Amino acid sequence: MTVILRNLRDRIAQLEGFSPPRLARTCPTGWPAVDGVLPGGGLLQGALHEIHSPDPADGAAMGMACRLVGRFLAATPGATALWASCRCDLFAPGLKAARIDPDRLVGARCRNSDEVLLVIEESCKSNAIKFLYADIGEVDFSLSRRLQLAAAEAGTTLFLLRPARFEPAPSAAVTRWHAESRPGGWSLTLFRSRGGRVGHWPMSVNVGECR
Q1: Distance CA 61, CA 185 (A)
Q2: According to the model, what pLDDT value does residue 32 have?
Q3: What pTM, to 2 d.p., does this model score?
Q4: H helices, E strands: number in the chain
Q5: What's the Cα-to-Cα distance from 169 to each of 152, 173, 185, rounded to whole Å?
Q6: Are 191 and 167 in contact (CB under 8 A)?
Q7: How far separated are the first and last CA of the chain, in Å rounded?
Q8: Tens-digit pLDDT profile for residues 64-95
Q9: Phi, psi of 11 (to 5 degrees)
């Protein structure tokens, strides 16, 4: 790739709210095999990431999101995370198992997806929330791009948990994952990674271990 073409691609990416890994900060997931395919050795901070699940009640996607939020919080002393959802099944002992300090987590119980979106966008504008996790359904490409731009501008890392049926739809998310419970464990698939590689990993029951 020529220097001119590379610079052009970087410029287009920046207009879309994506900073090349050499210009941005990343946070390792703690799974060496996973971090090995991610640009910069971890998840890009100040970016939109999607975690898809076949069933809202499937604990794999929620467990993955909690682990990632916990690692981001541990790497950023004093930062606050927000959980926005229409659900009411956030399990406090599970948060502690993911090393999330309840004193550093704010919960927003929403009535519908419109309220979830409002919470996301207002949180990014406030600059008070550095890590945000939200349950949401349909998000078209224009909206995903708007969320990616808002996350990049505010430096807020945004995790969206979405139903698996939306995986084929285009999205401006920097990474897109599929997490699903399996007999004896769960599986993790990275099916889109901007600037990185995709991959699939069987995981043990212990959410902290790749097989």
Answers
A1: 12
A2: 94
A3: 0.86
A4: 6, 10
A5: 22, 11, 28
A6: yes
A7: 36
A8: 988 898 899 888 888 889 999 887 766 666 67
A9: -65, -40
Dist CA 10 CA 32 (whole Å): 27
Strand-pair category, 26-27 with 43-44: antiparallel
Give the 3-state secondary structure of residue 175. strand
Q: Three-state DSSP class for 191?
A: strand
- Interior angle at CA 208, CA 57 and CA 85, nearest 5: 30
Which residue in the block uniquely carries the two structure tokens 């956030």? 90
139-158 tens-digit pLDDT:
899 999 999 999 998 889 99
Handedness of CA 31, 45, 196, 60 (dihedral sign): positive
pLDDT at 107: 86
Structure tokens at 38: 């991610």
Helices marked H in the chain: 3-15, 32-35, 59-75, 92-97, 113-126, 141-154
Sorted by where each starts, the structural domains of the chain and their CATH numbers stand as 3-204 (3.40.50.300)
**Partner residues linked to 106 by β-bridges:** 82
- Beta-carbon neighbour count of residue 97 at 10 Å? 15
Report the C-alpha gap between 55 and 60 in whole angstroms: 10
3-state DSSP helix/strand/coil % of the chain, to nearest 5 = 40, 25, 35
What does the block give as tokens for 120?
A: 């996301």
